[in-house]
Amino acid sequence: MTDPSSSGTSTNALARLLEIALELSSERDLDGILKVATAGVCSAVGCERASLFVYDEQRNELYTRVVTELEIAEIRHPLSKGIVGWVATNRALLSVPVPADDPRWDSSVDRRTGFRTRNILTTPVLAIDGRLLGVLQLLNKPAGFASLDERLLQAFASHVAVALERRRLEDEARSVWELRQSLEMGHRIQATFLPSSLPQVSGYEVAAWWQPAEFVSGDYYDWLRLRDGRWGFAVGDVSGHGLAAALIMATVRAMAHVLARTADHVHHFVETLRDSIVPDLQNSRFVTCCFAVLDPETHRLEWANAGHAPAFRYCCRTKECLRLQPTTMPLGFPTIPFPNQTSSTMDLG
User: Fold this and answer.
1) Are 218 and 194 in contact (CB under 8 A)?
2) Could you tell me which of 170, 159, 161 has the C-alpha nearest to residue 20?
3) Which of 42, 210, 211, 261 is the most buried (most CB within 10 A)?
4) CA–CA separation, 66 vs 215, rounded Å?
5) Integer Cα distance of 162 and 175 in angstroms
6) pTM of the model
7) What mean pLDDT do residues 330-348 have?
8) How far apart are CA 146 and CA 14, in angstroms?
9) Angle at CA of residue 127, ends 135 and 160, nearest 5°
10) Dihedrals φ, ψ of 226, to 5°?
């Protein structure tokens, strides 16, 4: 015959755990989840203390910041140590009636705090796909932990898993949103580095188009009116994509604006830019660029191409297309000149 008092106790415990599960559903931060889970399961099961250890995947450790009535702010456990580590590694519930007799038990916390652990019930907290999220541990139930406590703890651990996963997904969504906002701002800022209007070059029409592979990139183009009335045109690209490439591109642009007004020749421009930018290049990055100078009076075009994809000079009258082949290695590589053509006269039309 079933003991009525036992049935009533289990019903009360289950009702309390359901109440805690509802409380967990409204918690959004980790400290709140830890506090509700540990305090609630303690009162439902009738044990002295509880700990919820969260799995730190990067450090491959378990940690907790809240332990019921314990003053230690944070406890960390490697997966190779203690009851908690064993449960995490084996993904299995473990009841230890006498911890002192179990070689897996780590008594260091008791020694540091003066607390006495008399019995332990521990279960893993797992995601639906089996990933380890944490470990839930109960300490010191006066009558010892029974099979009912094991079932209740495992059921409650599933609710804790949902709360931890929801918190992780919300954190990831927030991080993605913040990153997107930052990248969109970076895109707008980078766009201001590019020319805001087309140059008016006598006898020529100028057009430009820019579309980064990501929000920000290392792509660059520019035009500059030189002191002697000629026009300088620059096209460049930093290896890779994203924010790092965009920051290097901004440095290249700033240096190019200075050098375009001081360099006495296109090759001097490229080599001085190489000497200036190479110390800032890391992780095998490099920069390709093509700098051309057009004299609208004589229609003479001179260029230096540091490993950039070939530019083209097309003549509508003769239907001829001239490749502006690389004249040296990209910036970030040693200076090696190539014996390619570096000047041409533009034909009108």
Assistant:
1) no
2) 159
3) 42
4) 41
5) 20
6) 0.55
7) 77
8) 14
9) 55
10) -85, 165
How far is Cα 199 from Cα 316, in angstroms, rounded to an integer?
21
> Which structural domains are found in the chain, ordered by start?
4-170 (3.30.450.40), 191-345 (3.60.40.10)
Strand, helix or coil at 63?
strand
Please give the single-letter amino acid code of residue 288: T
Give 287: exposed, middle or buried? Use CB within 10 Å, 0-12, 13-18, 19+.
buried
For the chain, give the mean pLDDT.
81
* CA–CA distance, 31 with 35 (Å, rounded to integer): 6
Q: Which two tokens stand for residue 296?
A: 């609208």
- CA gap 48, 68 in Å, rounded: 8
Rounded to the nearest 5 degrees, what angle is found at the Cα of 283, between the Cα atoms of 279 and 284?
Answer: 80
Helix (H) or strand (E) holding 32: helix 30-45
Of the candidates 225, 200, 226, 290, the residue with the CA atom closest to the CA atom of residue 252: 290
* pLDDT tens readout for residues 206-239: 888 887 766 777 788 888 888 788 888 888 888 8
CA atoms within 13 A on the CB side of 329: 10
**70-78, long-range: CB within 8 Å, 24+ apart, which pairs?**
70/113, 70/115, 71/113, 72/109, 72/112, 72/113, 75/51, 75/109, 77/53, 77/106
Helix (H) or strand (E) run with residue 186 in it:
helix 147-193
